[in-house]
Amino acid sequence: MSRFRMYPTPQQEQQMLLHCAHARYVWNLAVEQHSHWHPGRKAAPGFAGQCRQLTEARRESEWLGSGNADVQQQALKDFAKAKSARFTSGFGEPTWRKKYRHEGFRVIGTDRVPELTEDGSAKLNTKTGKQVMGRSVVVHKLNRRWAQVKVPGCGWVRFRLTRPELPKAKTFSASPTATASGTWRSRSSPYRSRRPVRARSSVSTGA
Q1: What is the pLDDT of residues 103-120, one digit of tens each?
Q2: Residue 125 CA to its chain's centroid (Å)
Q3: For the chain, what percent of residues have pLDDT higher than 90?
Q4: CB burial class (10 A; 0-12, 13-18, 19+) of residue 167?
Q5: Residue 114 CB: number of other CB atoms within 10 A?
Q6: Which of 15, 56, 161, 200 is least surrounded by CB atoms within 10 angstroms?
């Protein structure tokens, strides 16, 4: 898993902070729904049900509807993974995210790239025989020290390229650093990663 420091413009930073607020909001709604469950009561909605509720909430709330739907759905997906991994991760039930402490959001790649098997050959669909295409984060190299990544609603955001090769990932998570104003921390999840999402109230870093 790679980590890079991002340097958004002031306008991009405000949009990214809004992504953080929306992601925290829908995560906490999911925590609240599941906290009310007890034996004998109907189970709380799963990821698909929560996505349908999110669509309704976005129509009713101008603030939530102004945000990026993919970022908000990824927060629900991270919650669902954390919920599933609560017995094996060692962190227990997902807990509340707090403002200024547990800030972050996840972006799923929009580029389509061919997936490979363990031996490096093309991965084929068993039914159709066609090449399986996966997602990839959109990253461009600017020079030896700098690159840029496409963030929803922000366009291209620069980051320091601390490795000779561009990161290849299906998703990446971004969170503001606590020590430097205007800089952000980004973590990318590599292909074929199977690390579970940690069930804690902070930015998830697994695929």
Answers
A1: 889 888 777 767 777 777
A2: 26
A3: 31
A4: buried
A5: 11
A6: 56
Which burial class, exposed, middle or buried, applies to 196 when counting CB atoms under 10 A from its CB (0-12, 13-18, 19+)? Answer: middle
> What is the spatial distance between Cα 2 and Cα 109, in angstroms, rounded to a whole number?
15
Q: Which residues pair with 134 in a beta bridge?
A: 113
Q: Euclidean distance between the first and final Cα of the chain, in Å? A: 10
Tokens representing residue 59 in the block: 């129509």
Separation CA 32–CA 62 (nearest Å): 21
- Residue spans of beta strands (DSSP E) within 10-165: 105-108, 111-114, 133-136, 139-141, 146-151, 155-160
Sheet of 155-160, strands arranged across: 105-108, 169-176, 184-190, 2-7, 155-160, 146-151, 139-141
pLDDT tens profile 25-82: 999 999 988 887 666 667 778 889 899 999 999 999 999 999 999 999 999 999 998 8
Q: Of the candidates 163, 165, 160, which has an alpha carbon nearest to the alpha carbon of residue 149? A: 160
Quick one: pLDDT at residue 87?
66
- C-alpha distances in Å from residue 50, one per residue of 24, 59, 144: 15, 14, 43
